[in-house]
Amino acid sequence: MISKAKIKHIKALQAKKYRKEHQCFLVEGIKSVDELLRSDFEVVWVAITSQFMEARRALLNQRAAEWTACTEAELVAAGTFQTNDGALAIVRCKPNTPPQISNTLVLALDTIRDPGNLGTIIRTADWFGVEHIVASVETADFYNPKVIAATMGSFCRVNMYYTDLEKFLASVSKPVYGAFMNGTDVHRIAAPENGILVIGNEANGISAALEKFISNRVTIPRLGKAESLNAAIATGILLDVFTQKKD
Fold it and tell me: What is 4-92's CATH topology?
């Protein structure tokens, strides 16, 4: 049974203020907790149904995390999911550490505010083998429960670093690609072996302050009449082109 004190703590961690104060966040659902238990994150506590526990007893013992047996109804009442038949975990946040980005492709996010978009971008980056994302401080919180849920476990493999993007881009000596409405057709450029790909805000695109650092403006050709593409969809299309092996 989940105690009242633990439920209060779980509810508090749904707010950024308390995640920052306690340096912890929530992970919910069988898929995400399963991946979490196999990751290098520090698991503080897990609430689990009997079915989940039986299937992963050895893994839980290996992690030596504190755990509590509970029902599905308790998981739903404590967490943010409308249905949860497996598990909920409290996890220690990682330090905001600058990435090692030599000879690799890195995503840079300029004020991506929607948690669902950010989570999908992280999941998409994982699909295409991108391990590092650098984000503006205005970008949605990596540890927001909606972000973690949308990653479907990919938060375990993609590292996110928040910083002043203008200073960051000024400090790199790599080619910087930016997604614009009026750039070069992305299908006509050579797939870069390394560099920075900047994705702009959902409504306003890449900010004027960052434009001067973009050495290669690229665009996804529009064949229909839609005004714009969702930021996460655009990221997926661009990464598909950027990671293709050329003959």
Answer: 60s Ribosomal Protein L30; Chain: A; (3.30.1330)
